[in-house]
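Hi R.,

Quick one: here's the Protein kinase domain-containing protein sequence you asked about.
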Amino acid sequence: MTTTKKKSYRETVLPEDLRNITGHQSTSRKLDTREHTKYLKGHLGSSHRFGIPIHPHRRCDSTDVKEETDTKIKYHKSYYVDQAGSGVIALRDVGEFPTFLVKQRRIPEAWTFRKACHDNLVSLLDFYTESNSIFLAYEYIHLAISLDCLAGIVDMSEADIATVCRKILNSLVYIHSELRISHGSIDCSNILLNEKGEVKLANIGDSMIHEIALSDWKEDIAAIGFIVICMNNNTSLISGAALEDTTLSRSALKFVGNTKEKTAKELLDDEFLCLANPGGSWSLKRHYFDVLPLSIRFGKRARERS
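And here's the predicted structure, written out as tokens:
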């Protein structure tokens, strides 16, 4: 019975008045596959969603799947922002459009790429090359604020300073023990704060490119001592030199002295860090929102490459 119904449905002929309700001869016709593709390209090829060009998919059979899968994944660039240095917000052309911060550098003669992921590090997740440039794809931290913006505007307590130091030391333990390199550029401009109060050390990809040797780890640690002084007195950040008449407590000054001798792991047990927020760095959120209106700047829109 089912077969009979389907057959009668296919052979049904509509009356003339239903086939042409307007009373005019219909001029519509079916498009074959080639004409349909041409129509889509003409009408959909220039459409955009969130600034990303959308191109109609070509028909493909099973032999095309491998070719499409092996194609280099593309990043669709959006706006330039300052996230511990200039970079461009980019959406990766995969499911759900994950967001990255892409920074352009010159291709080094030799370097070893490693994914670098840690709670207190701006994670380095991918890279690609184009012409004479290498593009480092970091996690994107929305509306990130560098520590030098805070140090110049808000008054940070020693508990706040200890909280920042503990988080940076955590990232250095990972860099020194897991990545087996040194960061080489620990300063307030490379330390970021987000809306959750999380502290993250930026630009680990530059350390890989420049092959900062693990033997330089003492410079990383000593830089934390200078950061303590800068957060306590922002004029030190401007002058680039520590002040003699500091208001730091005895335990803080002892910590600064220890940064010239001890490793990151050893410093995590320092008496000064007992002042740090025991539940994380959420206590820094108030400082983030104090300076947010003064710190965010978006640059020009990035141009897509064909």
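The radius of gyration is 29 Å.

Cheers,
M.
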